[in-house]
Amino acid sequence: MGQVLSGGCLCGEVRYRITAAPVEALYCHCRMCQRAHGAPVIAWLTVPLAAFEVSAGNPTAYRSSAKAFRHFCGACGTPLTWRAAANPRHVDVSIATLDDPEPIEPLLHLWTESQIGWFEIADHLPRYLTDRRPRPVF
Ligand SMILES: [Zn+2]
Ligand SMILES: [Zn+2]
What we know:
Blueprint: E1 5-8, E2 15-18, E3 24-28, H1 31-37, E4 42-48, E5 52-56, E6 60-65, E7 68-72, E8 79-84, E9 90-94, E10 109-110
Parallel strand pairs: 3-10
Antiparallel strand pairs: 1-2, 2-5, 3-4, 4-9, 6-7, 7-8, 8-9
């Protein structure tokens, strides 16, 4: 990837940079993402944790389950990232918070068992009922 991806929250207090190529990009329809983001589906970009740097602000951590932390802007509430609680090697970043989300296109759907009925998927990407899937597609 030669270029650096950048993004941030709605109010601009939290800014971040991504300095390595994406590992994966996907849609998540799980109930926890739906509630955390207040949205029917979330588009995630997975990057190496070492390549993710917060360049401004200090995101608030929320332990959303035994196995994960979600970070968000404490000032405006924008959900930003998901990472494993134990030994995280990667971090998932909400694609919609990138300054330019256009080129980062999700390539599969996870957790469609909790897809909301009125939310229609019109693409032909692979769909998985849970998070069981072949390893990274990039
Ligand atoms: Zn903010
Ligand atoms: Zn999810």
